[in-house]
Specification:
With 346 residues, this protein is of the alpha+beta class. The protein contains 5 helices and 17 strands. The chain folds into 2 domains: 111 residues, Rieske [2Fe-2S] iron-sulphur domain (Rieske Iron-sulfur Protein); 163 residues, Naphthalene 1,2-dioxygenase Alpha Subunit, Chain A, domain 1, CATH 3.90.380.10. A 7-stranded antiparallel beta sheet has the order 11-17-16-15-14-13-12. The protein has a 6-stranded antiparallel beta sheet with strand order 1-10-9-4-3-2, with no helix packed on it. The chain has a 4-stranded antiparallel beta sheet with strand order 5-6-7-8, with no helix packed on it. The structure holds FE2/S2 (inorganic) cluster and fe (ii) ion (FE2). The site of fe (ii) ion has 5 residues, from helix 2.
Amino acid sequence: MLVTRQPILRRFWYPVMPAASVEKGPQPFTLLGQPLVIWSLGDGQYAALEDRCAHRSAALSKGWVDRDAVVCPYHGWAYDRSGICLRIPQRPEAGPSKQPVVASFACAERYGYVWVALGEPLAPIPDWPEERDPGYRRIDQFYEPWACASFRLMENSFDNAHIHFVHRNTFGDINDPDPPLPAIERGELSFVARSDVPVLNNDLQKQNLRDDSAVTIRHMTATWYLPFLRRLHIRYPNGLDHIIVTAATPVADGACQVVQFCFRNDSEAEAPAANIIEFDRRVTAEDQAVLETTDPDVPLEMGSGIERHMPSDQPGLLMRRMLLDLFARHGEAEQTRHYAPRQAAE
Ligand code: FES
Ligand SMILES: [Fe+2]
């Protein structure tokens, strides 16, 4: 699957950058190969346009904001959030353009991030109640580019067999190579996978979890939101919730922007955010080192023979099936360099 060649993937919300970073001025971001300029309209509103001036194609993200409009740095044309050209400094009598002259995209703020959908969204941005619950705090963890396909990070998140190998130096137990399979409940554009996985509890994690035992159990409820968003609710035996939200926002076929934050039902005094980030940093660095070696053109067809599978791959195989189903419902065939496109179902 080459994500930039699957138009239906444009019809989902993706977090693209921390809202705070847009307060400095217009910012660039490339989503599914589409260059964007994002800017703040104040009052928690944001705008997203194609990052290309209608005049001579200069990047609007190099410009500035004037009265809610983004101003091109080349000759000063100013655009509103709908892509209408409001002002041409050299032709003040012309007035605003009757139609948008630059493409605009849906843009919203949630959980401290600006989210963008390039087409009419098929599903809303998920509503996670912990954001409003005073019993939980949100900790921003990572915002960084990874050189791998978004799908690889998603399937990794639901692959319990990788824990004991990739994470053998943090919490995995290499002597337990075959952990329990999750029980999966499928929705239309999401699924929920539940499993209880015993893991080792290292020193930093003992502090973070306030649990001295050498082995603990992760009661995991992991939700996949098609295509590249997951929420992993880990409940520990002492009632501690560590809820990780990870987006692998697709930048290009082999590049994604990792956005990760977590919710915790403990306090800064009990477990400093810096220590929580430090442990999750070690864990994600282990994933990144392996995932950046994988083929970005993920073959979705199970029977293609290009990749072989084992029982613990069940969630990743379901993701493949659900993506193929989505493509078929919208008359798209999988685009890949591995084999000729299969005709989409009628
Ligand atoms: S290129 Fe943008 S105003 Fe000329
Ligand atoms: Fe991992």
